[in-house]
Amino acid sequence: SSGDWEGVTESVERASVALDEYLSSDSDKNMTTKEEILWQSIARELADMSTIEGCSSVGPPASIPNWISIQEYLMANIPADELNDSDEDRSHDESILLKSICNEIETLIDSI
After folding, report:
1. What is the distance, to the nearest Å, from the Cα of residue 92 to the centroid of all Cα atoms in its chain?
2. Which residues, 6+ apart, have CB-to-CB distance to 83 below 8 Å?
3. Which pLDDT tens digit goes with each residue over 59-80?
4. What is the pLDDT of residues 21-45, one digit of tens each?
5. What's the whole-model pTM score?
6. Which residues contact 104 (CB under 8 A, 6 or more apart)?
7. CB neighbours of 91 closer than 8 A, spacing ≥ 6?
8. Residue 1 exposed, middle or buried by CB count within 10 Å (0-12, 13-18, 19+)
9. Of 56, 54, 45, 50, whose CA–CA distance to 112 is shortest?
């Protein structure tokens, strides 16, 4: 139903706003410029998804390009020498986390 998709758009809008608020806060984020650009880009994709109107048969498919973009932003932040390593071979916790998120997004895309 359209109500189901409306709930999704409200959630991604809240996530986008929360990311924007965090990024604009004065707190010490200890982030590199590249990381800050990553999170700004993800916030923009979430904000874009929150504007998709329609029912559950329209909304999810229309959001696929946004999910793919988020996945690409995350993958771009995994060092090239760690992209194809198995999780056991990885030395950086952040790379493991980003790869895990990318895998979950891939599962989400496949389910749409």
Report:
1. 20
2. 75, 99
3. 999 999 999 999 999 999 888 8
4. 999 998 888 888 888 999 999 999 9
5. 0.85
6. none
7. 82
8. exposed
9. 56
